[in-house]
Amino acid sequence: MSTIDTKSINTIRALSADMIEKAKSGHPGTPLGAAPTAYALWDRLLHTTPLDSKWVNRDRFILSAGHASALLYSLLHIYGYDVSMDDLKQFRQLHSKTPGHPEYGHTDGVEATTGPLGTGLGMAVGMAMAQAHLAAIFNKEGYPLFDHHVYALCGDGCLMEGISSEVLSLAGNLKLDKLVILYDNNHISIEGNTKITFTEDVPAKMAALGFRVIKVAQGDDFDAVLAALEEAQTPCDRPTFVEIKTEIGAHSPKEGSEASHGAPLGEDNVRALKENLGFNPDDHFFCDQDVYDHAKARNEREKAYYDKWQNMFNDYMQAYPAMKALWDQYFQPDFKAYFNDDYYTITHDQPVATRNISGEVLNGLAKAYPSIWGGSADLGSSVKSYLNGEEDFDSTHYEGRNIHYGVRENGMAAIANGITLYGGSRTYVSTFFTFSDFLKPIARMSALMRIPTLYIFSHDSIGVGEDGPTHQPVEQLTMLRSIPHFDVWRPCDEMETKVAYEAAFTQDDHPTAIILSRQNLALVAGSQEAAKGGYILKDCEGTPDVIVMASGSEVSLAVAAASEAKVKVRVVSMPSIDVFKRQSKDYITSVLPDEVENRIAVEAGSRMSWGEFVGYKGQYLTVDDFGTSAPADEVFKEKGFTVEHLKEMIENF
Q1: Pairing state of beta strands 454-458 and 512-515?
Q2: Catalytic-labelled residue, pool 161, 258, 409, 603
Q3: Per its Swiss-Prot or TrEMBL entry, what cofactor is needed (predicted)?
Q4: Residue-wise over 550-559: b if at least 16 C-beta within 10 A, else e?
Q5: What per-residue confidence (pLDDT) applies to 28?
Q6: CA-CA distance, 273 to 279, in Å (whole number)?
Q7: Beta pairing class for 546-550 and 599-602
């Protein structure tokens, strides 16, 4: 360990402490303790360049312990990313590039938004899966286009969260040998020493999950840390877990105490820290030129590595011209070209479950676009999300396109976000709709990062029937609709299902959920107007007396009741409230005229999504209690979803 190594590590510590102290908010403990680990990785081993922070073969570094963001921002600044010293001074301030937790798309060099603990581990696993998948497809002898590592730095809290067990279990099963988990074991959480809650043998657990385990007894021993990281890079048929024992708040008066975890050290303690590190305590937000010069030398080495790869890539494209077209299919797919008149040809004239339609559409898309791959939480055959004729993605077939996630909904969604973030893939997850509760926090992260992960949910309502209220979603539509930048589609038939898929695949700045029925639904002759989220499906002459709005399986019910009613009725199909609300005011009022206040919302779920459209004088035919176990037809009848009941509601306004 050289003098400049020591100075660089301590500069990272001081910068982190200054950021948090100026903001009067943050988590200094982990940045102080983990600085040697992070520096050793970034300075010696991490193949990245600020000249091209989206380079496809860069090593990925995920700070799963996102509360330690000051550590990452210090590294990004020192190593030349678009994070200035002024940005560091604006830590946790309004509109700054240095928010309280790392945010993808907001700060140069940040690979993923890591807020809830453990989710970063899931995204790292997804990135390692994507690396293995694309390497299996594109790498040729002498041309290792995809040949990098994925690193995730986690803490005790990440490993306590259940999601970590889900994703690391799958990583071990898949033998993802390019995945390296760095465990900053400082044995402290907010409430104190982890002996009060977390006494499991973590290295033994990780070995049981299929990881190679490397231990570092003292995180301040730079040479030992570096040796462990170098060992983690050596070939192995397993992912690697490196346990590094550190002291939280290292070198400060609060070293080893939970008091350094989630609050500023305090001005006097920051002064003492700097004195302990050999710095002038009166200097704030400083980085000496020799530290910058040292980082610049590292960047020059990495630029040479990057240029070598670019030359190899160019030679590869000349040696394998057919692969250039395939590369473009992965990294520049033209999804819009797929959705033509032939696509919208109706193929079913008999009742069919929308989950079946979804499966047909998904398989058709996957045949046309090899970059589409994904899977389910052990329910592919039920959700109809399995890609027929394609291999499974496993440790012997990384080129496979069917992912078996096992019963791991939360981890599944985080992994899929990692695959999406990696680039070159369009991925999806699938499960029963009621189990969206397990993955909602990660669906929210998809929306926060504005990435197009696709969520396919079947068994959409009380129509699940005999499985009863535990499996009959009621409030889940409202839950997902409440997430900003997240489109929820509940199609009523083949046409609307196809529209939903077009909407999902012709944008790349938000996630989409498609909610599908288990039971067969009649074709109601929906139109491509469904692309506007809501449209007039059945109208009357003149101004309607009543407007009935419905989604999914209840649309055919609305049409049938309107046809029998003795008043003028307009039926509005509303496959996506989210998309409908983005239409122009003129369009919205053309569908729902202000002067027609007699409105009924019909949906086998909570009424809470519909208030702004129903208004004060409107009515609801919804499910605002839990379901019950019985055949689907009986459950619908029990809850009032019959033509007779809805007709009576229409006529008795």
Answers
A1: parallel
A2: 409
A3: Mg(2+); Ca(2+); Mn(2+); Co(2+)
A4: bbbbbbbbbb
A5: 97
A6: 9
A7: parallel
Residues paired with 150 in a beta bridge = 60, 179
Domain boundaries, the chain: 3-121+149-302, 335-515, 528-651
Amino acid at 569: V
Q: What angle do CA 312, 314, 317 make, to 5 degrees?
A: 110
Backbone region of residue 256 per phi and psi (left: phi > 0; alpha: psi in -120 to 50; beta: other values): left
Helices marked H in 102-143 — which ranges? 119-138
DSSP 378: S
Other beta carbons within 10 angstroms of residue 172's beta carbon come to 22
User: Does the annotation flag 115 for ligand binding?
Assistant: yes
Active site residue 409: yes
What 8-state DSSP symbol labels residue 93?
-
Q: Indicate the CATH number of 528-651 among 3.40.640.10, 3.40.50.920, 3.40.190.290, 3.90.550.10.
A: 3.40.50.920
Contact 64, 117 (CB under 8 A): yes
Q: Using CA atoms, how far apart are residues 356 and 151, in angstroms rounded to an integer?
A: 39
Give per-residue pLDDT as tens, 477-500: 999 999 999 999 999 999 999 999
Structure tokens at 445: 């992260």
Q: Please give, one letter per residue, the 3-state secondary structure of 211-241.
A: CEEEEECCCCCHHHHHHHHHHHCCCCCCCEE
Was 294 annotated as part of a binding site?
no
Residues 6+ apart with CB under 8 A from 291: 4, 7, 8, 11, 78
67 a known binding residue?
yes
Q: Are the beta carbons of 572 and 537 closer than 8 angstroms?
A: yes
For residues 209 and 136, what is the distance between their CA atoms, to the nearest angstrom?
Answer: 24
Query: Which CATH superfamily hosts domain 3-121+149-302?
Result: Thiamin diphosphate (ThDP)-binding fold, Pyr/PP domains (3.40.50.970)
